[in-house]
Amino acid sequence: QVQLVESGGGLVQAGGSLRLSCATSGRTFSGGGMGWFRQAPGKEREFVAAIAWTGGYTYYADSVKGRFTISRDSAKNTGYLQMNSLKPEDTAVYYCAKNPSGTYYYTLGRYDSWGQGTQVTVSS
């Protein structure tokens, strides 16, 4: 089993930036990937971005493409989500998760381990 711990959330004004981190321990991501999802109050959890741990291929939701960048540091077993040009509609709890198969990154059900989440609030 892998453990994931998010950090870096907070309150920021619209147009600002935040960088989220996801520290992992336990079994490695070899062959799989890491995803970021978010959930706003009263809404379903939605895909934000994902990265293949080997190869570094990236995937983004249309709503964040061009503003968010996902990356990983394999030596530190840590993933990152750089969020720029933040908008009030980006306000949500952000979760990182492990995709063990490295497929169907956009699909929530393909992730088997989740962090506890970190709150991101963007004020207008």
Task: Kindly describe this structure.
By secondary structure, the protein is an all-beta fold. It has no helices and 11 strands. The strands form 2 sheets. Strands 2, 4, 5, 6, 9, 10 and 11 form a 7-stranded mixed sheet that branches. Strands 1-3-8-7 form a 4-stranded antiparallel sheet, with no helix packed on it.
Report the β-strand fraction as a percent range: over 45%
Which radius of gyration do the C-alpha atoms yield? 13 Å
Estimate the mean pLDDT confidence: 95
Portion of residues within helices = under 10%
**Distance linking N and C termini:** 40 Å
- Count up the helices: 0
User: Low-confidence parts, pLDDT < 50 over ≥5 residues?
Assistant: none
| Overall SS class | mainly beta
Keywords:
124 residues; seven-stranded mixed sheet; four-stranded antiparallel sheet; mainly beta; 11 strands
Topology readout:
Blueprint: E1 2-7, E2 10-13, E3 18-26, E4 33-39, E5 46-52, E6 58-60, E7 68-73, E8 78-83, E9 92-99, E10 113-114, E11 118-123
Parallel strand pairs: 2-11
Antiparallel strand pairs: 1-3, 3-8, 4-5, 4-9, 5-6, 7-8, 9-10, 9-11
